[in-house]
Design brief:
The complex is a heterodimer of chains A (98) and B (954). Chain A has 98 residues and is an alpha/beta fold. In chain A, 43% of the residues lie in helices and 35% in strands. In chain A, strand 2, helix 1 and strand 3 form a beta-alpha-beta unit. In chain A, helix 1 runs parallel beside helix 2. By secondary structure, chain B is α+β, with helices and mostly antiparallel strands. The chains are: A alpha/beta (98), B alpha+beta (954).
């Protein structure tokens, strides 16, 4: 998975490409942990992501929990497959999807 | 003996020996040897019969007039060496000839005196020989020294017969036959028989002396019998000889004494007669004396009388017992101090006083003896009463000195011994004190004998007996040879009879011992041999004597105990074996899979002595089937137990997910531990991949299986590892082969190829391959059954010695299922997902389906990677992907051998929780369940199998 980090003021954007799965999720988790301090707005761009597994969900949930305290988080460019997954798992209820 | 006689005897001796040699070599000529036995018997009988008759004809005349023959040797030799019946015929022929030839004259004539004895003995010679041969020698030839004894027996019998037929004139027989011929004929026949037998033995290259290390009872009994009988014979002979001799001597002495006494009587009578005449003459003359009172006249008359009567002395005794007149100066009444001699004063003269009666009738004749007055002088006195009333003339006594006495008696005594004989050649002699013969047997011209020798026992060739009477020596001479003849005759006949009796006794005793002991021992021995060769049903029934009766009982009892013990042991063994068999069978899978993909069939026929064969097959997982065959060394319970252990161990190792080679290596290691019995196993195991037909196999010293490709069976050779439980630390190597649909693998143990028929021919590999090939197109079950049937036909009723075990695997169809097996580590996740994605792309799956399936694969594989195996252990995860027709649906199977875990049992998470409350646990499985059309969990052989299905097109 490719993770592209884009910082703009207190907005941090991760543009992801490839599979967000058990094997790759730790990378994202690590990247978020390293850069999330002092960020007010976190944007996850899933436009290039093939699929998300439960491990990916775990990282997204963790990020959401952090950002719930210090700002907000937006998940954008969610394709149909991922969207239905979010819906299925109740993630659509807690995430801000654009 | 003349030269011609000796020559005749030599010829008669050589003929039977020559015949023996002739027939020995004739028997080596095939034409003769092949003749029927009956013809041979007649040929032998004729030849030896003629030889025996020749013996009669060629008899040799002895100086005594008797004839010696060598006749009986031929039938004996014939009977002993060649044929008993032939010997009988030969003997009878010769006996008849001997009997008849008496009535002929000239060259062919024989003596009539011993006709019966000779002919009967010869006729029976063959019979005796045949009987001895049959009953003593078990119809064998017997050794040469027995030939000698048999001939002695027959000839002795001959002589005994002669004695029995001539009891009336035994002394003639003794003189003409026994004394000159007996010993010669016995020894001659015996030695010729011996020579013939020795020659036969030597020419047949037999040993003349056989020394047995351990003597047989037979031999020992023979030895002891012969020795005791010889000693017995000698003792009895000595005793017989002693007693006969003493009787004969007594008789001789009696005869002599009787003759002597008779002569003495004659002498006494002559003396009485002569002296009585003399007394009568003197008494008459005294009576005639005129003036008896005139002393001078009387004395003159007496003196005259003395001269006329030729006597030495005349005394007249008065009635008081005193000599009144005497011619002898010593007797003169005035000679001693005017006293006349008193008759009672001397013992010799006092005896005459019986005549004091004076009667004329009274006479007293005194023996010739020493006189009272002078002991060196011997006188004959006689007296008679005078019958005169004159007191001075009471009785008269006349005396004769030796010279006058002898001359007076000479005429009267002269013929006393004339007709006296002692037997035929002995005689009696009457001699005076100087040894001059006075009278003797009439034809004896002896004139003087040596008196000093007559008190000894023998006098020259004579026994001598003597008496002294009336001044004479009466001597009887008995010729020693003549008087001892009865001793010789008696001793000879008794000896002959004894030899016969003792030899017969020997035979009888020997036969008794043989029949009652030796033969019975042999019979028991034969039965015992049967028993020791394993036939315990033989019963010994030798009941003839107490000893054999109890011996039989004891042996039977022992054998019965032995039999019972063996039976009990056999039953125990049988139970043990059937137990072992049931163990063996109980662990073998008995339900044989047969489906459209493959078929397995197997069979095992345990031998009586259970071996440790086993086969096994089972699913290792959905797509893999294990087939296995093995043979445990050893038999019985230990092998069965070991087999069970090995089988269980291998299965549990393989099922734990271990690679086949590793499993073998590990199993070997464990089986080696504590394998003190040195039992080992040969095994072949293969794992067939049903989806590809790929077979991985390991061989641990087992015979390679046969593999059928395109209808042809060939050995699946390859590297073989060492036997299991044989060498600790051995590493087994995996090999592989690929099967196509229709191919077959045939596994078997050496019980198949090494099955043997009655003649120990092996069934062998060639027959097996042939039988398999002709059934190659058939099902696994049918192939096994055909091989078994063919095998049974070959073996027939020979006993099965080893387990016969086989297993056939036939592949019918292998599906092209897509399978990926990887180590269950998360690093392999993408490899799996790429594998699935590629298949999905190929199948034309929708993007959505592909995305969803990717998530599912991620969830399930990561689950296995993280949780299935214990930390630190890397297990396998297998993912199989299949598509339905037209690729409408996909089936994905996840398999692992980790801890049993059914993910479907996990509760679904609450998806409605807020961010704070939300967790990820259980979400993965939840997604799987939600996105797949069906999810099924199964635990197969301890494997976690999760089967997922989903439609992959819109």
């Amino acid at each position: 998975m490719e993770i592209t980090k884009l910082v703009s003021g207190d907005t941090l954007t991760f543009a992801l490409k490839g599979r967000l799965d058990t094997l790759t999720s730790p990378d994202l988790s690590k990247a978020i942990d390293e850069s999330v301090a002092n960020v007010k707005h976190l944007i996850l761009d899933l436009g290039e992501v093939d699929y998300v597994s439960s491990a990916g969900l775990r990282v997204i949930l963790t990020a959401q929990k952090i950002m719930f305290k210090q700002g907000d988080m937006i998940v954008k460019n969610v394709n149909d497959e991922i969207r239905s997954l979010f819906e299925m798992t109740g993630f659509s209820e807690i995430l801000t999807i654009e | 003996m003349q030269f011609i006689d000796i020559f005749k005897l030599i010829v008669a001796s050589l003929v039977p020996v020559g015949l023996t040699v002739g027939f020995l070599y004739l028997n080596k000529v095939e034409k003769f040897a092949k003749l029927r036995e009956i013809y041979k018997v007649f040929i032998y009988a004729g030849a030896f019969g003629l030889s025996s008759i020749l013996g009669t004809i060629l008899g040799a005349k002895l100086p005594s007039g008797s004839i010696v023959n060598i006749r009986d040797a031929s039938p004996i030799i014939c009977g002993l060496i060649f044929s008993g019946p032939a010997g009988i015929i030969a003997g009878v022929l010769s006996g008849i000839y001997r009997f008849v030839s008496v009535y002929w004259t000239g060259f062919f004539a024989s003596g009539v005196y011993t006709q019966i004895a000779c002919s009967v003995a010869t006729a029976l010679s063959g019979v005796i020989t045949a009987l001895i041969k049959k009953f003593l020698f078990d119809n064998k030839r017997g050794t040469w020294f027995y030939g000698f004894f048999i001939a002695v027996l027959v000839e002795d019998f001959h002589m005994v017969l002669a004695v029995l037929t001539h009891l009336n004139d035994i002394s003639v027989l003794y003189d003409t036959v026994l004394k000159p011929c007996a010993l010669f004929m016995i020894l001659a026949n015996a030695f010729i028989t011996l020579i013939a037998m020795v020659v036969y033995s030597v020419l047949s290259k037999e040993k003349l002396f056989v020394f047995e290390k351990k003597r047989k009872i037979n031999t020992k009994v023979q030895f002891v019998l012969i020795n005791s009988l010889i000693v017995g014979y000698l003792c009895i002979s000595l005793f017989t000889f002693g007693s006969i001799r003493s009787v004969v001597r007594n008789n001789t002495e009696k005869e002599a004494t009787q003759s002597i006494n008779e002569v003495i009587n004659d002498v006494d009578e002559a003396v009485d007669k002569v002296l009585k005449e003399k007394l009568e003459s003197v008494r008459t003359k005294i009576n005639d004396i005129g003036d008896k009172s005139n002393k001078t006249n009387v004395e003159n008359e007496l003196a005259l009388m003395l001269t006329v009567e030729e006597i030495s002395e005349i005394n007249i005794v008065n009635d008081a017992g005193f000599i009144s007149y005497s011619t002898d100066i010593y007797s003169d009444p005035n000679f001693k101090d005017g006293h006349s001699f008193e008759m009672s004063s001397g013992e010799q003269s006092a005896a005459f006083n019986v005549l004091l009666t004076g009667n004329v009738e009274d006479t007293y004749i005194q023996e010739f003896r020493a006189i009272t007055a002078e002991s060196s002088l011997k006188y004959k006195y006689a007296g008679q009463g005078l019958g005169i009333s004159d007191p001075n003339f009471c009785y008269v006594q006349v005396g004769l000195n030796e010279e006058k006495y002898h001359s007076l008696l000479q005429i009267e005594i002269d013929d006393c011994a004339h007709y006296r004989h002692i037997k035929k050649n002995g005689y009696v002699v009457v001699a005076d004190s100087n040894g001059n013969v006075v009278s003797t047997t009439i034809d004896n011209d002896l004139t003087k004998i040596d008196i000093s020798k007559i008190n000894a026992k023998k006098y020259g060739d004579f026994y001598v007996f003597s008496e002294y009477a009336e001044g004479y020596y009466i001597v009887a001479f008995s010729q020693i040879e003549e008087s001892d003849l009865p001793v010789k005759i008696g001793f000879t006949s008794v000896s002959l009879a004894e030899i016969f009796v003792f030899l017969v006794l020997y035979a009888v005793l020997y036969i008794i011992v043989k029949r009652n002991v030796v033969d019975k021992i042999d019979l028991v021995q034969v039965d015992l041999e049967k028993i020791s060769n394993g036939d315990l049903n033989v019963e010994i029934n030798e009941r003839s004597t107490y000893e054999f009766d109890s011996l039989s009982d004891n042996i039977n009892k022992t054998v019965k105990t032995l039999k019972d013990n063996i039976e009990r042991e056999a039953n125990r063994n049988k139970e043990e074996l059937s137990f072992a068999k049931s163990i063996q069978y109980s662990v073998l899978p008995a339900v044989f899979p047969m489906n459209d993909k493959f078929e397995i069939f197997a069979s095992m026929n345990a031998a009586k002595t259970v071996g440790g064969d086993f086969y096994d097959f089972y699913y290792v997982d959905h797509e893999h089937v294990l087939i296995e065959i093995a043979d445990v060394s050893g038999k019985g319970i230990p092998a069965a137990m070991f087999m069970m252990r090995a089988k269980t161990l291998l299965k549990s190792l393989i099922e734990s997910g271990m690679d086949l080679a590793t499993a073998f290596t590990e199993a070997n290691k464990r089986l080696c531990e504590g394998n003190e019995t040195q039992t080992f196993i040969t095994a072949w195991a293969g794992i067939v991949d049903l989806s590809t037909g790929h077979v991985e196999f390991v061989n641990a010293g087992h015979n390679p299986p046969l593999i059928c490709k395109d209808g042809k069976f060939e050995y699946l050779n390859g590297k073989s590892g060492f036997v299991l439980a044989g060498l600790e630390g051995f590493n087994y190597q995996k090999q592989s082969v690929d099967l196509a649909p229709g191919d077959m693998i045939y596994l078997y143990t050496d019980g198949v190829t090494e099955a043997n028929d009655k003649n120990s021919n092996l069934y062998g590999e060639e027959r097996l391959i042939g039988e398999l090939s002709s059934n190659a197109k058939r099902s696994a079950k049918r192939v096994c059954e055909e091989v078994k049937e063919n095998l049974n036909k070959f073996v027939q009723d020979a006993e099965q010695s080893d387990d016969i075990t086989m297993l056939a695997f036939k592949l019918y169809n292998c599906e092209t299922t897509n399978i990926k097996v990887v180590d269950a580590t998360i690093e392999n996740l993408h490899e799996i997902i790429d594998f699935v994605d590629e298949l999905l792309d190929r199948a034309g799956a929708s993007m959505k389906a592909k995305s969803q399936i990717d998530v599912v694969v991620d969830e399930l594989f990561s689950n296995i990677a993280f949780y299935a195996y214990p930390k630190g252990q890397v297990g396998k995860a297998k993912i199989s992907v299949g598509f339905s027709k037209n690729n409408e649906d996909i089936t994905i199977i996840f398999e692992d051998r980790g801890r049993p875990y059914n993910p479907l049992e996990k509760e679904d998470p609450d998806t409605t929780l807020s961010v704070e409350e939300k967790s990820i646990g259980g979400l993965g499985i939840f997604i799987v369940k939600k996105t797949m059309d069906s999810v099924e969990y199964e635990n197969v052989n301890g494997h976690n199998v999760l089967t997922l299905k989903k439609k992959i097109r819109e």
